Amino acid sequence: MGSLTLYTTLGCHLCQHAEALLEAAGCQFVASDIAEDLTLLERYGTRIPVVRDSLGSELGWPFDGTMLSQFHE
To answer: Which domain holds residue 21?
Structure first.
């Protein structure tokens, strides 16, 4: 299993929910605030939260614990 990145931003309640799912699943991840990078903001501004693995695959919202587990196998 590789590392995960959670694309998020402050005040996003869906992002908070996604972070809780990642923590509950025991996933190690780095949260990346899209507001700090114009390229990320343009790419993910209307799609967050998004989880990306080290191979570049993405899991976009909405997702649940089962979908997250399957994505992170």
So the answer is: 4-71
CATH number at residue 46: 3.40.30.10
Structure tokens belonging to residue 22 = 């990642």
The pTM score is 0.93
* Number of structural domains the chain divides into: 1
Give 10-residue mean pLDDT values along the chain (73 residues): 88 96 94 96 96 96 94 85
**CA dihedral (18, 23, 25, 30) positive or negative:** positive
**Given CA atoms 41, 69, 61, 14 in this order, what sign does their dihedral have?**
negative
Tokens of 65: 């614990």
